[in-house]
Amino acid sequence: MAKAALLTLFGLGLTLLKDYQSTYEARLNAFREVEPVQPPNCKLVKGIETGSEDLEILPNGLTFISAVNNTVYLLVVNHPNMQCTVELFKFQPEEKSLLHLKTIRHKLLHSVNDIVAVGPEHFYATNDHYFVDPYLKSWELYLGLAWSNVVYYSPNEVQVVADGFDFANGINVSPDGKYVYIAELLTHKIHVYEKHPNWTLTLLKSLAVNTLVDNISVDPVTGDLWVGCHPDGMKIFHNLKSAPRSEVIQIQNILTEEPKVTQVYAENGTVLQGSTVAAVYKGKMLIGTVYQKALCCEL
Ligand SMILES: *[C@@H]1O[C@H](CO)[C@@H](O)[C@H](O)[C@H]1NC(C)=O
Ligand SMILES: *[C@@H]1O[C@H](CO)[C@@H](O)[C@H](O)[C@H]1NC(C)=O
Ligand SMILES: *[C@@H]1O[C@H](CO)[C@@H](O)[C@H](O)[C@H]1NC(C)=O
Ligand SMILES: *[C@@H]1O[C@H](CO)[C@@H](O)[C@H](O)[C@H]1NC(C)=O
């Protein structure tokens, strides 16, 4: 009898796991095929072989760098010894160097993936997991607990401003500073939030794009979003034999009723593996990856 009960329990467990497994595969967009799409003229960037996750084109005041009274500050996410800090630097124009000002730590900044600066020491940050422990992190991911969140940080106030994400990833603001864009990796969505004077956020809309969305760059002139994507998360999260693929989408008119989503780049991993970010400048697009090369394309 006990054995039968045990077996039933075992069976139930298996069924549950099977359910999770298929949901998991759907969340990872496993086995999606991509047809190659490429702008006419693309070249690999020389000298970059082991990752180029972070790309920024830097006019005054864009994302990582905020210009306040002609002082340019740089905020960088750092993970020393599995911990999580944000490093603040000041740009020194004469010496063309960066001066390290301080290391920011806070218990609400526990698993930071991306940040967007809104002041010299003020930023929004995505925490891609709730847990810090790698083992618990992997269960959190597998079970799809959606406990990832977004935090507002300033020297005198730190608060969670949005939560319930299934892996909050890239974050950015609109050129006019009124809206915050958040990429939710495993629901394949870009969320648009209204930003209030008290720094809280209200969800305005969500756009589903059928690909795992990583970092978001915002064109400072047009306001278009350029998103580095993973067509198939299975290859990026699990070391399957075949290479992770790459994809870049451009989203125009995201605030209107009819946003336009264009696949600008797609490739099976032969040229570029695991694209995370794309940024455009003067008719050129740079694409960066987690641990591999970078590509420069004419648009
Ligand atoms: C891009 O995404 C990766 C992985 O999600 C993250 O580590 C990195 O900080 C992001 N880079 C930028 C420029 O947002
Ligand atoms: C810039 O302004 C901030 C806030 O008003 C102030 O704290 C800071 O010292 C100023 N920096 C410079 C270089 O003037
Ligand atoms: C922040 O501002 C929004 C919009 O004005 C308001 O709805 C909300 O109650 C405010 N929250 C706090 C904590 O003051
Ligand atoms: C990837 O695409 C290239 C060019 O279309 C093709 O030659 C190659 O066989 C493909 N590789 C895989 C692993 O699908």
TrEMBL record:
Question: Does the entry feature the keyword Disulfide bond, yes or no?
Answer: yes
The job of this chain, per UniProt, is described as: Capable of hydrolyzing lactones and a number of aromatic carboxylic acid esters.
Q: Which residues bind Ca(2+) 2?
A: 54, 169
- Please give the positions of the paired cysteines in each disulfide bond: 42-297
Signal sequence, start to end: 1-17
Tell me which residues bind Ca(2+) 1: 53, 113-114, 214-215
Gene designation per UniProt = PON1
InterPro entries registered for this protein in UniProt: 6-blade_b-propeller_TolB-like (IPR011042), Arylesterase (IPR002640), Serum_paraoxonase/arylesterase (IPR051288)
| GO biological process entries | response to toxic substance
Give the glycosylated residues.
198, 215, 268
Cellular component terms, GO, for this chain's entry? extracellular space
- Please indicate if the UniProt record lists Hydrolase as a keyword: yes
Record's protein name = Serum paraoxonase/arylesterase 1
Q: How is it modified after translation?
A: Glycosylated.
- Originating species: Hipposideros armiger (Great Himalayan leaf-nosed bat)
Write out the catalysed reaction.
Answer: an N-acyl-L-homoserine lactone + H2O = an N-acyl-L-homoserine + H(+); a phenyl acetate + H2O = a phenol + acetate + H(+)
